[in-house]
Amino acid sequence: MNYSRCAKCGCKLSKEDLKYRIIIDIVEDYDDVLPDLQEEISDDVDMLLHQIGESEPEGLASEVYEEISFTLCKVHGLFLKRSTGWQ
């Protein structure tokens, strides 16, 4: 039988069990405002561009967007109340 596990309590969840998939999107909150750049920091910008060029695309992407998902059993109500204050 195919089953998954609750991320909170670890219980086995079959296809027939009541369960909840929690999806969290973590997105950079860029406000279209860049600091004033002065010529003295051009070396810093060059170094940053060099670091970006040597970085893995996945690492750079996770700095802007990341999705986390997991499955919960009936304890989801407790999760929501503790993490958000919602009931």
The averaged pLDDT comes out at 76
Radius of gyration: 21 Å
The structural domain count equals 1
| Run of helices and strands | EEEHHEH
> If strands are numbered along the chain, what order do they take across the biggest sheet?
1-2
The overall strand count is 4
Instruction: State the shape.
Output: elongated
Structural class, from secondary structure content? alpha+beta
Regarding quaternary structure, how should these chains be classified? single chain
Helix content: 25-40%
Give start-end ranges of low-pLDDT stretches. none
Strand content: 25-35%
Distance between the first and last residues' Cα: 34 Å
Number of helical segments with 4 or more residues: 3
Taking the sheet with the most strands, its summary is: 2 strands, antiparallel
General description of the model:
There is one protein chain. Helices cover 32% and strands 25% of the residues. With 87 residues, it is α+β, with helices and mostly antiparallel strands. The chain has one domain (3-29, 38-84). A hairpin with a 6-residue loop joins strand 1 (3-5) and strand 2. The longest helix has 13 residues, at 42-54. The two termini are 34 Å apart. The model has no long low-confidence stretch (mean pLDDT 76).
